[in-house]
Amino acid sequence: MLTIAVSKGRIYEDALPLLEEAGITPIDDPKKSRKLILKTTRDDVELVIIRATDVPTFVEYGAADMGIAGKDVLLEHGSDNLYEPLDLGIAGCRLMTAAPVDAPEISGRVRVATKYVKTAQRYFADRGIQADIIKLYGSMELAPLVGLADYIVDLVDTGNTLKANGLEPRDLIINITSRLVINKAAMKMKHQAIQALLDQFETTLANR
Ligand code: AMP
């Protein structure tokens, strides 16, 4: 059995066509079902539906053999204990700093609200900017509006969320796409099955 960890939402939606090309169609729809383990049209493959930030953890500990995770999550988690063989090019967006529209640049110490604590710390440190990073779990856009932070660091796709909250994108930290990650032991123990899937994904991506 091959277990693949995927998160609900955009990554799942974008991953479905890739999985389908490999003959993997979930039997239940995670939007309608509360099941966390989804059987698929392939007897030897199941999906586990978990939070995006938990995907690297499940794969690292072998609770899933492979997973699909955003580069944002992998940067934050650290991917030393995982194989990351393939950029799937799906769920694309940008990790950016953002601030209230027309707010002046801050010269001294800045306060930054984000759920990407490690990535933000690294980004500001690399630029010699002193930053106090405030960890939030959601609604980052609110932080500058209520005086909690000068900047936020968050994912931006269309920019509509920022705009709706009177914020504007400032600096690009990194372009984000979802990656295939593989448990190191599974890569050895289930090599044939995993390699076949990898080859299939690569062929599908090359034909896009
Ligand atoms: P947008 O309004 O289109 O710029 O989307 C921004 C909101 O969607 C933010 O709250 C992001 O955290 C979230 N978001 C955008 N793209 C992604 C993605 N690829 N994966 C997960 N969340 C995303």
What does this structure look like?
It contains 8 helices and 9 strands. It is an alpha/beta fold and 208 residues long. It has 2 domains: 2-91 and 177-206, D-Maltodextrin-Binding Protein, domain 2, CATH 3.40.190; 93-175, D-Maltodextrin-Binding Protein, domain 2. It has a 9-stranded mixed beta sheet with strand order 2-3-1-4-9-5-8-6-7, with helices on both faces. It starts with a strand and ends with a helix. The model has no long low-confidence stretch (mean pLDDT 97). The structure holds adenosine monophosphate.
SSE ordering: EHEEHEHEEHEHEHEHH
Shape: elongated
CATH class of the largest domain: Alpha Beta
Number of helices: 8
Ions, cofactors and other ligands present here are:
adenosine monophosphate
Short key terms for the protein model shown above:
208 residues, alpha/beta, D-Maltodextrin-Binding Protein, domain 2, 2 domains, nine-stranded mixed sheet, 8 helices, binds adenosine monophosphate
Can you lay out the helices and strands and say which pair or pack?
Blueprint: E1 2-6, H1 10-21, E2 37-39, E3 45-49, H2 55-60, E4 66-70, H3 71-77, E5 82-100, E6 110-114, H4 117-126, E7 131-135, H5 142-145, E8 151-156, H6 160-164, E9 167-183, H7 184-189, H8 191-206
Parallel strand pairs: 1-3, 1-4, 6-7, 6-8
Antiparallel strand pairs: 2-3, 4-9, 5-8, 5-9
